[in-house]
Amino acid sequence: MRAHRPTRIEVSTDAVRHNAARLAALAGTEVCAVVKADGYGHGAAAVARAALAGGASTLAVALVEEGLALRAAGIDAPVLVLAEPPVDALPTMVDAALTPTVYREATLDVLDRLGRQRGTPVGVHLKVDTGMGRVGVPEADWDARLRQAVAATGLRVEAVYTHLARADEPAADTTRDQLAVLERFLRRGASAGLPAGVRVHTANSAATLLHPAARRDLVRPGIALYGLSPAPDVDAAAFGLRPALRLVTEVSFAKRIPAGTAVSYGHRWVAPADGWLATLPLGYADGVPRALTNVGVVLIDGRRRPVAGTVCMDQLLVWCGDDEVAAGDEAVLIGTQGDEQVRVEEWAAHASTITYEIVTQLTARVPRVVDPPPTGRPDHPPT
């Protein structure tokens, strides 16, 4: 359906391709591009294709449904599902050639049976809890799970992996400690008969950028693939990564107001002088944090303009001062306009959160436009 509002998210597949290639060069190993949560809000199918074109060998998602959506889009690359699904979903996974993560006894049993029934072992990635404390084989179950995996003729352990809890904190010892725990598991696995060729992966975005020892046989960048920083102290731009997303709209209404005029809910902002006020047709229902009230900025006519007053559900106001503004003028909330830029990292700082939350909270009612024409509003239906 053609969009009737000017608000849109513009996605650059060139930036994603560049980032995948840059991360592969930095890591010196294979890249598993994480495209869960609809490609971190960018559109999973488009960014998956771009990441593969940039050199990624594998994709990763959180849910079986996300993997099936990639298959429905015609993507046949290896897809790792990062969390165990309910066991009744396992036949669907196997039929779709999605690679399961395993850590529970019941999951291994079902996959072993499915592999024997089909006459082809099911390739799996065995996840180990080394200190994240979330999911994975806990140390108390290492021996039992290894015996089960080695004895199962209907499955094949292709990789062992873990997830790092504090890789985005360069000074923390936790990453080193977790890697040491994983080495203990691998030694235990070798003694139990785990094949020598099993691959190992541990590195999320932060570990890919900061911890060479974590890179192993492949890396699993998520947020870095989209050119965004995994933490305030880890600047993606410093590693040559490019943001792939631009949030754009147009001024829907403009007027000149006198000094002392209070605007929006709660009258939390008052005009400091006579000047121009612009209304934009998007708000927190589109994913603009209400925390940007009176602190966020918007680019209009190549200049940074402050958000004026409370961000509403469907609209927000921008103070333009002496500069005349008119309905139809382009407004950029995330991305570049002229020589200026608003970064996702700014939003995250204002909202006391992380870049991951900002982009995954941009809602579905904002259309994603992949590789729009370079001038103005796209003249084709959004995707």
From TrEMBL:
Pathway: Amino-acid biosynthesis; D-alanine biosynthesis; D-alanine from L-alanine: step 1/1. The keyword Flavoprotein does not apply. The modification N6-(pyridoxal phosphate)lysine is found at K36. One of its GO terms (molecular function) is pyridoxal phosphate binding. Its EC number is 5.1.1.1. Residues 244-371 form the Alanine racemase C-terminal domain. GO terms for biological process: D-alanine biosynthetic process; peptidoglycan biosynthetic process. Its cofactor is pyridoxal 5'-phosphate. Substrate binds at R134, M313. InterPro entries: Ala_racemase (IPR000821), Ala_racemase/Decarboxylase_C (IPR009006), Ala_racemase_C (IPR011079), Ala_racemase_N (IPR001608), Ala_racemase_pyridoxalP-BS (IPR020622), PLP-binding_barrel (IPR029066). Keywords: Isomerase, Pyridoxal phosphate. The active site is at K36, Y265. It catalyses: L-alanine = D-alanine. GO terms for cellular component: cytosol. HAMAP family: Ala_racemase. Catalyzes the interconversion of L-alanine and D-alanine. May also act on other amino acids. This is Alanine racemase. The gene is alr.
